[in-house]
Amino acid sequence: MKVGEVMNPKVITAAPEQRICDIIEILQENGITGVPVVEGTDVVGMISKKDILPLVASFDVDYETLDKIKQTCNYHVRDYMQREVISVPPVEPIEACAMKMINNNINRLPVMEGGRLVGIVTRGDILKALASCSCCEI
User: What DSSP string describes 39-92?
Assistant: First the structure.
C-alpha cells in the first residue's frame, strides 16, 4: 500500500507570519495536532501542539498569568516552527513512511510530488491502513 492511498489530500496549512494564538484555534477547530507551514508554494516548516505547548504550559493558570497566555498572540509561527521538514512522495510504501515517523519521532509528514504539497499523512492514517491490510508487513 502506498502513501497516496492513505494520505489526506485536504491539507490545512499555516503561514510563517501567522500568530500562534490563531494556530491554536485552527488546531482546535479542526481536531488536528499540527500543520505544514507554507510560504508561497514551498513547505518551509511544521508547527504542532508540541511546539506551542511550552509557550502556555509553563504558566500557572490564575488570573494574574492569563495575560501571559494571551501574549501568544504576539508570537509568530516562524519563531516556533520546526524548520527541518521531512516529507514523503505519494508512491512511498506506508511501511517506509512509518519507519521515517518512528526514526524521527514525528507524527505527520507532508506528502510532496514534483515539489508541490499534495497531502498529509499521519501516524493514525498509517495505523488504520495497516489494521485493514493483512498483506502488509513491517
Answer: ETTEEEEEEEHHHHHHHHHTS--STTTHHHHHGGGG-BHHHHSB-----B-TTS
Angle between helices 94-104 and 123-131 (to 10 degrees): 140
Report pTM. 0.84
Assigned C-alpha cell, 96 = 517506509
In a domain, 137, yes or no: no
Per-residue DSSP letter, 97: H
Residue 118's domain comprises 3-131
Is 63 contained in some domain? yes
Q: How many domains does the chain have?
A: 1
Q: Is 48 within the bounds of a domain?
A: yes
Q: How confident is the model at residue 90 (pLDDT cuts 50, 70, 90)?
A: very high
Over the chain, what is the mean pLDDT?
88
Q: Which CATH number do you get for residue 9?
A: 3.10.580.10
Q: What are phi and psi of 87, to 5 degrees?
A: -130, 170
